[in-house]
Amino acid sequence: MTTVELTRFKVAPERVEELLRTRPGMVAGFEADRAGFLQATLVRLPGDEWLDIVHWRSAEDFAASRAKGPNRPDIKAFFDTIDALVSSEEGTLA
C-alpha cells in the first residue's frame, strides 16, 4: 500500500528562489538513491510555509529513506534551504 509523507516546513522569503532551484536536484537524488520513491509534490502555503507531499511504495521504503537523511549533495542542497520543520506525518492512500 502506498505510503504518503507529509512534511510542512518554513523557508525564509530570501531563500525561496534557492529552494525552487534545488528542488529538481533533490527529486533526481531521490529517484537515483531511494528505493520505493514514487513522486513528490511541493505546495506553497501562506506565511512562508511549504508542504512536501512524497509518495513511497511502502512504509519500509519511507523509513529507509529517512535513515539515509541528506546523504547526497543534491538532496542536502534542498534540505539546507529549510529554516524550520513545522510538522511531519505519514499515512497511507485510501
Strand order of the largest sheet: 2-3-1-4
Q: Strand-residue fraction? A: 35-45%
- C-alpha end-to-end distance: 9 Å
Low-pLDDT ranges:
none
Please give the count of helices. 3
Main β-sheet description: 4 strands, antiparallel
Helical content band: 25-40%
Structure description:
The protein has 94 residues and is of the alpha+beta class. It has three helices and four strands. It has helices at residues 16-33, 59-68, 73-79; strands spanning 3-10, 37-44, 49-56, 84-92. The chain has a four-stranded antiparallel β-sheet with strand order 2-3-1-4. β2 and β3 (49-56) form a beta hairpin. α1 packs antiparallel against α3. The longest helix has 18 residues, at 16-33. The protein is globular, with a radius of gyration of 13 Å.
Task: Provide key terms for this protein.
94 residues, alpha+beta, four-stranded antiparallel sheet, 3 helices, 4 strands, 37% helix, 35% strand, globular
Walk me through the topology:
Layout: E1 3-10, H1 16-33, E2 37-44, E3 49-56, H2 59-68, H3 73-79, E4 84-92
Helix pairs in contact: 1-3
Task: Summarize the structure in short.
The chain is α+β, with helices and mostly antiparallel strands and 94 residues long. The protein contains 3 helices and 4 strands; from the N terminus they run βαββααβ.
